[in-house]
Amino acid sequence: MATVTLDGVNKIYASKRGPVHAVQDLNIEIGDGEFVALLGPSGCGKTSSLRMIVGLEDISSGEIRFDGRVVNALSPEQRNVAMAFETYALYPTFTIAENLGFPLEVRGVDKASREREVHRIATLLQIEHLLESRPTNLSGGQQQRVSLGRALIRDPAVFILDEVMSHLDAHLKFQMMFELKRIHQSLGKTMVYVTHDQMEALALADRVAVMSNARLQQFATRNELYHRPANKFVADFIGEPPTNFLEATVTVEGDGVTLTPRAGELGFHTDARRAHAARSAGLKSAIIGVRPQSLSVDPQPGMGSITAEIVLNEYLGEMTILTLRSGAEEFRALVPPTVDAGRGASVTLYYRPEDVMLFHPETEAFVG
Amino acid sequence: MARLELQGICKGFDEPVLDRITLTVEEGQFFVLVGPSGIGKTTLLRCVAGLERLDAGRVLVDDRDITDLKPYHRNVAMTFESYALYPHLTVFENIASPLKARRTDPAEIKRRVGSVAELLRIDHLLDRRPHEVSGGQKQRTALGRTLVARPDVFLLDEPISHLDAKIRHELRRQFHQLEDLRRVATVYVTHDYAEALSLGDRIAVMGHGGLEQVGTARELFEQPATLFVARHLGQPSINEIACALEGDGDGLMARARGADLRVPVAPRHRQGLAAVNGTPVTLGIRPQHLRVLPPDTTPDGVPGEGGADAGLPVIEARVEIFEALGAIGVLLAEAGGVSLTALTSPDAHFEPGQPVRLGMETGAFHYFSRETGQNLHL
Question: What is the ipTM score, two decimals?
Answer without folding.
Answer: 0.86
